[in-house]
Write a structure and sequence with these properties.
The protein has helices at about 5-15, 25-45, 50-70. By secondary structure, it is mainly alpha-helical.
């Protein structure tokens, strides 16, 4: 299974955001990177065969929003 940029960005974000002493500015930067990589991958997906990855992307995007709201204090949409 190929590891895409969005997966690496999410891994880094999750490790930082859920660490014992997360760095808020680093977490915010990792949120931006994860958002960029997720939406870049959305643009690349084009076949029904990509449904499983699309579902993983949707879950990752929801997790980014959760981190923004709960860990970084951003207002909920």
């Amino acid at each position: 299974m190929q590891v895409h940029g969005w997966q690496k960005a999410m891994d880094a974000l999750l490790k930082e955001a859920y660490s014992v002493n997360p760095n808020v500015s680093k977490s915010k930067e990792l949120v931006k990177q994860a958002e960029f990589e997720i939406f870049k991958r959305y643009a690349e997906i084009s076949t029904p065969d990509d449904l499983a990855e699309l579902q993983r992307l949707n879950a990752a995007a929801r997790e980014v929003l959760t981190i923004q709201n709960e860990k970084l204090g951003s207002p909920k949409l």
